[in-house]
User: Fold Uridine phosphorylase from Actinocrispum wychmicini.
Amino acid sequence: MTTENRAHHLHLRAEDVGGYALLPNSPEQVAPIAARLDEPTFVARNREFETWRGSLAGETVVVTSTGVGGPSTALAVEELAALGVGTMIRVGVSGSMRPNTRNGELAVVTGAIRDEGTTKQYLPVEFPAVATTDVVRALQEAAAGQGVPHQCGLVHTKDSYYGEMEPERMPLAAELTERLGIWRRGGAICSEMETAAVFIVGSVLNVRTGSVVMMWSEQAVRDGGPAPAVEPLYDTAVAAMRRLVHTAVGAGVA
Ligand SMILES: O=P(O)(O)O[C@H]1O[C@H](CO)[C@@H](O)[C@H]1O
Ligand SMILES: O=c1cc[nH]c(=O)[nH]1
Assistant:
């Protein structure tokens, strides 16, 4: 905490947050997600961390950007948890690892392959990075309820975007390519850069966590074509959070 009782990196105070957080990656994604909450208000910005606050069924929900990758995501989860947030959902974009995935399909993530460095400073690799069951269920029900095509499964979390996109360019080309093949054969459905940190830091701090990521099809990634529309992703994440809030306050799901 800073001298003004603000979290060191997020610049938030305990009274700024409630029990729930949605975690996109980029500051530009925060306001559009917060616009789906009641009474969205800008709260703070420092470095890559921008936070807006709103509410669902009268409960405070914050939307905070995590920045790219494990280190900054771990900071965000740590500081939000210290301020009292107990439920967090990552909301992002990923590259599909399955040939028949449609461009823009969602992945409701059940677990993450820890092919990154941050979480190894929390728990040994034998410890699984898994989502919390009721958050997974809320995300599945929200996607189904909105008619959004989705798959449920494992995500690959890595540190090097270009190591995934252009492994052949790297000195470690053979190893990177082999490992990507291994994750595919093991059943990974897509690849991104933050979910393992959300799940592992969440486990250590006793936070409920989930992750929903939109998948670029392999062809769209290869073509560098336009990104699929993110509205179904944002709608699904907010609808899932609404379900979790309604369950907690004992109201029916709207
Ligand atoms: O679309 P977002 O959520 O930023 O996430 C994906 O895109 C970034 C790389 O371009 C990585 O952070 C990866 O996880
Ligand atoms: O393929 C992709 C697309 C988005 N983000 C990633 O990390 N990988």
User: Anything to note?
Assistant: Residues 115 and 125 are 9 Å apart (CA to CA). The longest strand covers residues 87-96. The chain has one domain: 14-246. Residues 14-246 form a domain with the Rossmann fold fold (CATH 3.40.50.1580).
